[in-house]
Specification:
434 Repressor (Amino-terminal Domain), mainly alpha, single chain
Length: 74
């Protein structure tokens, strides 16, 4: 179960990074738009931490995508 959760975190992080780069945003710019710490964005992209639904919503809004788009492929 723990390996599965690490894999989900890693896939979510890759998807977040993909969308961030597609929108031509740095981690710092995304963190500002989402009102989250820049180091937290890096941790999420590396799959190092669990992310709350609330923070997923903030990131989706900052990326101008629906939450379902952010979760696609995860």
């Amino acid at each position: 179960m723990m390996l599965y959760m690490a894999n989900v975190r890693a896939r979510f992080g890759r998807r977040l990074r993909e969308l961030r780069i597609k929108r031509k945003l740095s981690q710092e710019a995304l963190s500002f738009e989402a009102d989250l710490d820049r180091s937290y964005i890096g941790q999420v992209e590396r799959g190092e931490c669990n992310i709350s639904l609330q923070n997923m919503g903030k990131l989706a809004r900052a990326l101008k995508v629906r939450l379902s788009d952010l979760l696609r492929g995860v």
